[in-house]
Design a protein that fits this description.
This protein has 192 residues and is an alpha/beta fold. The chain contains nine helices and five strands, in the order βαβααααββαααβα. The chain has two domains: 120 residues, P-loop containing nucleotide triphosphate hydrolases (Rossmann fold); 65 residues, no CATH class.
């Protein structure tokens, strides 16, 4: 059975880049956000059409869902009740089908949703708040208000730090890549 390393971090902390470094090192990576994108073009279409017909054509329209949630914040709970079980099944399938000594599971809400219980260890990627804000505000269409709303829904970084097995600060690409390789070696040496 594969060693399951759960990767998490708040928006703008370097999760995508860190996951890419694991993939470049030959570690199979499952990405929760990518799974949602696949499901919005597949298994989630029918149940989402039943619940939110205005948000579905041949696929689930994420922008339409954002508008629905803006008008009715309670809709987020209904959306999650449909999508989260499908995402969990996609993750279980990946774990069952992947024959590697180590796998990385990129789950933005790892701690918020209690998924760390399914992991052998967790990895938090982090950066100082001013770097996080700078990174996120450089994204097209992102505003201070939108970032603050996202951060309000996420567990504070200090709380994630207290719960994480491993922490990587993502200040420079080469240093982050080196820390990823060191962590892979560490896990393999302890769990061979």
């Amino acid at each position: 059975m594969s060693f399951r390393l759960g990767l998490t971090g708040s928006i703008g902390m370097g999760k995508t880049t860190t996951a890419r470094f694991f993939a470049e090192a030959g570690i199979p990576v499952w990405d929760a956000d990518a799974a949602v994108h696949r499901l919005y073009r597949g298994a989630a279409v029918a149940p989402m059409r039943a619940a939110f017909p205005s948000a579905v054509t041949d696929h689930v329209d994420r922008d339409a869902l954002k508008r629905i949630i803006a008008a009715d914040p309670a809709a987020l709970t209904r959306i999650e009740s449909i999508v989260h079980p499908l995402v969990a099944e996609d993750r279980r399938t990946f774990i069952a089908d992947t024959k590697a000594d180590l796998i990385l599971l990129d789950i933005p809400l790892l701690f918020e949703k209690g998924y760390e219980a399914e992991m052998d260890a967790t990895l938090l990627v982090t950066a100082p708040p001013e770097i996080q804000r700078q990174r996120v505000l450089a994204r097209p269409g992102m505003t201070d208000q939108a970032l603050d709303a996202i951060l309000a829904r996420q567990m504070p970084d200090r709380d994630k730090r207290a719960r994480a097995t491993h922490i990587i600060e993502t200040l420079a690409l080469d240093a982050t890549r080196a820390q990823v390789h060191a962590l892979i070696d560490h896990i393999r040496s302890r769990h061979a």
